[in-house]
Write a structure and sequence with these properties.
This protein is of the alpha+beta class and 459 residues long. 28% of the residues lie in helices and 11% in strands. It contains eleven helices and ten strands. The strands form five sheets. Strands 1-10 form a two-stranded antiparallel ribbon. A two-stranded antiparallel sheet has the order 2-3. A two-stranded parallel sheet has the order 4-7.
Length: 459
Amino acid sequence: MILCFLLLQWGTQTVGQGVFINPVNTNGTVRVEFVEFEQPLDFDIHDESMFATSDPRFEFPLTEADVTWLNSLFSLPEEGETRERKEYRLLTEEEREYFHRAVNMLKNDTTVSLNKYDLLANIHSRSSSNTAAHGGPGFLGWHRVFLLLFENALRQMIPTATLPYWDCTLDQPLSHPSESVIWSDLFLGNGDGEVNTGPFRGWNTQFGFGLLHRQVSSLRHLMSVHDLRNILEEDFLGNISYPDTKSSKNLEQLHNNVHVWVGGLMRKIEIGAFDPVFYVLHTFIDKVWEDFRVHQRSKEIDPTKDYPEFYGRRNHASFAPMGLGNLVVIDGISDVWNKNVVYRQPSCGNSGQNECGSKFLRCDHSTWTCVSKTKDEVTKSINKDKHKDTTLSRTLNSGLKELDNLYIPSLLNSGISHSVYSDFLYPLKDRHSTAMYSENVSQSSALQKAKEIYMSHLN
């Protein structure tokens, strides 16, 4: 059994000392190595400007319930478990319905501040996370960890739910990408203003930003197959990241263009995660990065050791705090986060009606690439009744009512306690062992406690 443990402090960060994790292979057995470090000299924790945010509303204190739930999300896939992340349009009807239902269940769960969906989205808004998540080579690793947290949250709702990804290069070749089936009630819902169709219709957002809304295709552009080729022409993380690369090969900049293209909440970094588009887009970016890491290995480059020496902003220094528990930036390039995660992508076949493995895609035989169908194409080809798939929940043998797939708005309970846990240690797999080690955590180092718990599970 492979376990990893983290000291989580979702309130005030303590970053003078931390734990750097790394998988090591000893005689064919993979274990987790814990390396204790002191704060690097070029990083000044007292520099408050690095934690500055344009909107203090995002910085509300976390409650005990918030911290307990967030800690529960820090788990790796079980040994022997494989999580297959498919392109959104490759999902079966049941998989698609379960994904939508799980997202809405998080949105409806108000046992924490805001609700579980918005609380996790707010972590992306907070300055302590935001500064390490954008504008540098830590971007990809930060979001890889964040995606795993979100996927674990989905699986707490529905154990079989797994994150799909939205490959926007399948929409880019369309004359009008805004007409893609992605923006129909079968997937993300409409992209022209307030979202009033699809599984996320009528969602209210937090902090006074109103109803979920988008304005697709008004500015910038989607990523293309050519963009992906540009990325895979490079060999090192620093060559596809801020600050030391041109925009055509900068994966973060290419992703920024898609954020702006979607518009609405997605256009602003601090609130982008309040739209589910955020997660399916970032899962695609993570898939591109994984393809890049495979490419690196083919050239005998170890991606777990490929963090650029020139990282630009101090928040992206190797041992700067990630803003997710007590992780540091370089933890994001470890292999542990995507262990047992695989990506499935569409490809053109030689024959058959669904050559790309989906009734929502078609094969462009001039380039032998898959392209999305439009909403009109799908409506004409699958059924005259355009509501057939959206009523799938009535026929699924799940024992759940159709109403469960709808968001029920609720307000933040202003009367809840704002006490914050600190020094809270949460084992990633065996939750029952928490009580054995949570007492007096502050009296010994994070490293020692992590080692104690880890060793106790090796026997």
